[in-house]
Amino acid sequence: MANVSVAAEWQLLYNRYYRKPELYPLRWKNIDLSRNKVACAPFGGPIAVIRDDSKIVQLYSESALRKLRIFTSSGVLISDTVWKNPGGRLIGMSWTEDQTLICIVQDGTVYRYNIHAELIEPNVTLGKECFEQNVVECVFWGNGVVCLTEGGLLFCIPDFKVMRPCQLAETGAEDLPNCMAVIEPKYTVSGNVEVLVGIGDRILIVDEDGVQTVEGEVVQGLVQKMVVSWDGKFLAIFTHDGRILVTDINFKGVLLEYNCESALPPEQLAWCGLDSVLLYWDDTPLLMVGPRGDPVHYFYDEPLLLIPECDGVRILSNTSLEFLQRVPDSTVSIFKIGSTSPAALLYDALDHFDRRSAKADENLRLIQKSLPEAVEACIDAAGHEFDVSRQRTLLRAASYGQAFCSNFQRDRIQEMCKTLRVLNAVRDPEIGIPLSINQYKLLTPSVLIARLVNAHCHLLALRISEYVGMNQEVVIMHWACSKITASLAIPDAALLEILLDKLKLCRGISYAAVAAHADKNGRRKLAAMLVEHEPRSSKQVPLLLSIGEEDTALMKATESGDTDLVYLVLFHIWQKKQPLEFFGMIQARPLPRDLFISYARCYKHEFLKDFFLSTGQLQEVAFLLWKESWELGKNPMASKGSPLHGPRIKLIDKAQNLFAETKEHTFESKAAEEHAKLLRIQHELEVSTKQAIFVDSSISDTIRTCIVLGNHRAAMKVKTEFKVSEKRWYWLKVFALATTRDWEALEKFSKEKRPPIGYRPFVEACVDADEKGEALKYIPKLADLRERAEAYARIGMAKEAADAASQAKDGELLGRLKLTFQQNAAASSLFDSLRDRLSFQGV
Amino acid sequence: MAQIPNLDNSPLNLKSLREQSQRDLVKILKDIRGKKCLVIEPKLGGTLSLIIQTSLLKEYGIELRHLSAESVQTDCSKVVYLVPSQRDLMKSISSHVHDDISKGLQREYYIYFVPRREIQCERILEEEKVHHLITIGEYPLYVVPLDEDILSFELDLAYKQCQVDGDTGSLWHIAKAIHKLESTFGAIPNVRAKGKASVMVADILDRMHTEEPMNSSDMALSEINTLILIDREVDMITPMCSQLTYEGLIDEFLRINNGSVELDSSIMGVQQEGKKMKVPLNSSDKLLKEIRDLNFEVVVQVLKQKATSMKQDYAEISTANQSVSELKDFVKKLNSLPEMTRHINLAQHLSTFTSKPSFLAKLDMEHTIIEASSYDICLEYIEEMIHKQEPLINVLRLLILFSVTNSGLPKKNFDYLRKALFTLRELLHSYGFEHMATLNNLEKVGWLKKQESKSNWLTVKRALQLIVEDTDTANPNDIAYVFSGYAPLSIRLVHNAVLSGWRPMEEILKLLPGPHTETKRAGITSSPSFATLQGASNGLDKIADGRRSLVLVVFVGGVTFAEIAALRFLSAREGMAYDLIIGTTKIVNGHSLVETIFERFG
């Protein structure tokens, strides 16, 4: 059977099969791992290679200068650069999660490179102690590092995104540790980094705040090497007597123990998934140890580098890259020699079908009931395959089986095809990202796309994001920025065309962000052209300001209708320009102008006056002055002494003159003039009466006050001074006299002459004061019979009211009066009775 | 009864809106660890009482203060200001900070701006050199549900800022608020706007759509079918008239704030000297829901009837033998007793105002002005008010009504102009020259101006049948019942816009201030929006998706209770297949509108 050859490549470790398909024959030449320091990023990431300066090596025909070279996992050179960094020997080198290469040298300086071997500024240092003591060892994890100095101090960068180093607690031990391992912050209870340190025959747990010694029987004696599993739950330990132990992270229970022949610690110790541990000495075969059964040996004749992944280990040698993994259960069920599982039978059935053999049908009949499970297994197995033709065969088997299943989720095959297409695309040696399906799921498509973009594989990234239905904005944005950086030679207009052509692919993309990038690259004109296309004003306007396009910024901000944006521009220009230039810019634009005025009214009075003067709006200045005069009056200093009256009146006079400049404002001018006059008179009144009650009251109030005070001459004077109409005068005097309840004077006043507005004010004043008797003096004098009737009605004299109404021969009025009386009486009595009735509830 | 309205019966899920606002606020308070002093701007505090109970806030370790000029007295080391983005408040806050510094107090300051931080405010903080001491955040409260069918943007000053200062920030706010509603309830396919500010809001809304495109799937799901934007400027007549519905009258005489009215407790029959009490007014009150929109005359009748029937029941219960089920019914009725008492008390209190001759005279005058029958009588009446020094706002309301219906103070006849100017002079003389600024504002707003063209009022009035003779207030068949004979212009417009769009009434729209627009958003042509509304009477569409189309009517610059009553009347009428949700910058009346324009020197 054809399946035999597949399983023949597997190795059995107790009851589990392992396989190590070759991912790539490496395309690089003349790279000897033993001469170099090598850093490989997990998830099929790039490989950084630099000559190891801690080893004595023979230089052949190469330069003495060291070169940092970055390759894809398939050995294709991405970039290289000459290493000229000071700071001593390179101690540690590793990739971060976002694929930045971290290089730590002896004096504690951290150099960062991107995938294009460009140094990312600024360099960070681990601190003074590191500088003085020298770094001797670094332990990296995905997003941080712990460094050990010659003095035995531990330093840590817990997060490469923040790059803030900190020192961990001192161990207090005199010796240097034998070995270290790190538990990542995301797996510790405290959320801080914890370092396991093997010193002497103890293991310490060190974090920022303190040191703990591991208690327990599990580990005794000196520990030579430790590695934490990728999920932070287990620990592999190589002891002084050549045993390999696996315990859980809290040192409770031994899950695996194996005695290796060598007491020398292995050069590399790595987890393969979570099932087994690999040990590598450079002169013996690679050893794989599992919880039970005999270990497996792999023979190599070249140096190796183990790259742990979440579901296996990649094995890098000088010539090839392999992936050692436990054979997935679905694959085992299909390809295990002699397997009669439904999946195996289905796979076999396809083979028969292809050969037009009737056995195909027989096979299908055999597995009728478990067909869905068989299909599922084929799909799953296909996902784990690296070989495209085998993927295809497995998927065909699945699809063949599916045709006979009635209730199988049909999109499973489709989904898997989609995933595999993506995986196969990135596994292409040119791209060189050999992700397994599990790694891909853990990494997520968006991170994969970010990595592709980062490696400048924009087209592939774009196609993948389109294919898996993700927003393409990230890709296009990155492309546009990279394009700008790379296209110094292309003229603005041409480059704009190129950019727009691609940018329009993505709705809602931020043109402003691209423009900002252009500006940063010194292409201001291109930036201006780009920002024109930005639909979001809130992004467009600030950028326009930063590239000095104030006029356009003001226009765009106004168009947006967002006043906050207009203010942004206003303040910017205000600060930058001379007042006159500023005024010129806003004067013809209503919204910015009005907003400026509104702000300045509240906060910049004097500046506002300048504005109005420079734009010839004299009446506005006049209003401001007038307002100021009032504020002067509110000032407590003003009420104490009279001297401030002068300045107040002066301000009003000034305002009046300004009003008088234009014909349209004669009304205002007149009012200001009268106001000044009134203030003078009021001031005199205050002096003569020695009472500070006049200033800032109105003309009418002044007259009233005079009358209430009994100063009728003064009242008369104010009246004539301001040509108060007889009508107003009568109302004022009548009400003023009523306030003082001087009914005699009121009567006298009524008899002075026939009142020009009749006797109504007199009646009203008396009725309001609730003086029926006084009111009755005037009601009969009311000329209008209807008025008379209503007045009677108001003081509750129904009969007289009715008489007057009938005299007036006004039936409608009569009816209305009657109704009012009835209704009021009825309504109020109704309300009263209701309240009595309802009050039993206690409400 | 709670002041926070029960929103269960709302045609939109406004509850979720309110809960979101609650969560946002609680998150802000939780994120600031430890004890803190929360300083709220008083008006905003009133608004927040519609969102969350203050007692709930205290659970988060908060001392509550109102923002004032005086510095904050507290032991807390953290002071959190929750304020609207208004310039004048920044000065108070800065002075608080300076005050603390001079006293050597070290505190952490936070300012949360409602609804968003604004540069003009931060700028003042910078100039006062306190910006760096303050952590600044935002509380994005753009809309507050006042009741199950009313949304308020809480922009008291919107009209004044737009028309007097030319500051259109509030329009952006409105557009943003609507945009936010759309992101919850789906994009609104039809937009009709009338008035300058409304058209601007519609434009900004359009911009927001292009800036942040919504998914086309959202469009299909739109719960709101049509948006109608009406500018207060289009109809300044209605708010200047005295409202005659129950709720409208309460607002006119007692001022309703944030869905409740504050009264002397003695009025409500609680004997506590001089104590004020708050009476909530929202649809959680079943009786209020029944009578709030009725003409006050009718309200008195209804209350009378209810009381009489209750009295009868009581008499029966105390005399005859009753079965248990009858007793149960009676007890059920008793449950409504507190509501009855409350409204009887309120109504009685109102009737002390409405029975005054001066009130009746004012109503008379308003009608005279609306009917535009005589200049002389009107001006004379206004002049007499001035002479009597009646409250200036009352004078201005009539004066504005007069000016607006005549599109300015008449000048074709020199005599009238002289008279009008004379009136203004008399006004200054009576109330003081400081009101020059108010007059100036009134002119800027266009409420008081010299007549420049012939008034369109008569044409408009006739074409839209704004004066309805013989209105039966008890069984109304027209919205005119809310003003006892005058049908509010704004609502006539809305009614027509809902039924048939602007097109059939273009000619009349041209006579009213401001442009009008009508847009149908692209991408949703398939939805039967317009047709649904037109073919409403046959009721087929109702069955199609089981519910009525929803129209959001937004009043830019405020709406009165009387207008709300008229809208509710419309949507309750038979043959109307739409529900209405009202959005407004604020609930206003003539008084509060004029008040915002008020500006004295000093």
From TrEMBL, chain A:
It is a peripheral membrane protein. It comes from Hibiscus sabdariffa. Required for vacuole biogenesis and vacuole enlargment in dividing and expanding cells. Involved in the docking or fusion of prevacuolar vesicles. It is found in: Vacuole membrane. This is Protein VACUOLELESS1. Belongs to the VPS16 family. PANTHER family: VACUOLAR PROTEIN SORTING VPS16, VACUOLAR PROTEIN SORTING-ASSOCIATED PROTEIN 16 HOMOLOG. Residues 509-824 form the Vps16 C-terminal domain. It comes from the Eukaryota. Residues 8-412 form the Vps16 N-terminal domain. The keyword Membrane applies. Keywords: Membrane, Vacuole. InterPro entries: VPS16, Vps16_C, Vps16_C_sf, Vps16_N, WD40_repeat_dom_sf.
TrEMBL record, chain B:
Keywords: Membrane, Transmembrane, Transmembrane helix. SUPFAM superfamilies: Sec1/munc18-like (SM) proteins (SSF56815). It comes from the Eukaryota. The chain crosses the membrane at residues 550-570. Belongs to the STXBP/unc-18/SEC1 family. This is Vacuolar protein-sorting-associated protein 33 homolog. It comes from Hibiscus sabdariffa (roselle).
